[in-house]
Design brief:
By secondary structure, this protein is mostly helical. It has one domain. The protein is about 75% helix and about 0% strand. It has three helices and no strands. The radius of gyration is 16 Å and the shape is elongated. The two termini are about 15 Å apart.
Length: about 80
C-alpha cells in the first residue's frame, strides 16, 4: 500500500517537473511567454514570479529524488 502511494507521488512529481521546467523562460523564451511571462522579464532581469517558479521547481525536484530513493530501497 505504501509503495503504491509513493509511486503515485512519483508520477505526480514527474508530471509537475515537466510542466515547471517548460514554464521557465530560456534564451529564446519558454512556454511562459504564452502566459504573459515575457512582459515582466523584459522590464527586470529576475522577477518575483521567476524566483518563486525556481523555488517550486527545486522543491518538486527534491521530492522527486527522495521518492526515487524510497522506491529503490522498498523494491529491493
Amino acid at each position: 500500500m505504501l509503495t503504491a502511494v509513493i509511486l503515485v507521488l512519483q508520477v505526480v512529481c514527474c508530471l509537475a517537473l515537466i510542466f515547471l521546467i517548460l514554464m521557465h523562460s530560456g534564451k529564446g523564451g519558454g512556454l511562459s511567454d504564452m502566459f504573459g511571462g515575457s512582459v515582466g522579464s523584459a522590464a527586470a532581469g529576475s522577477t518575483v514570479v521567476e524566483k518563486n517558479l525556481d523555488r517550486i521547481t527545486v522543491v518538486v525536484a527534491v521530492v522527486f529524488a527522495f521518492t526515487n530513493i524510497i522506491l529503490l530501497l522498498r523494491l529491493q
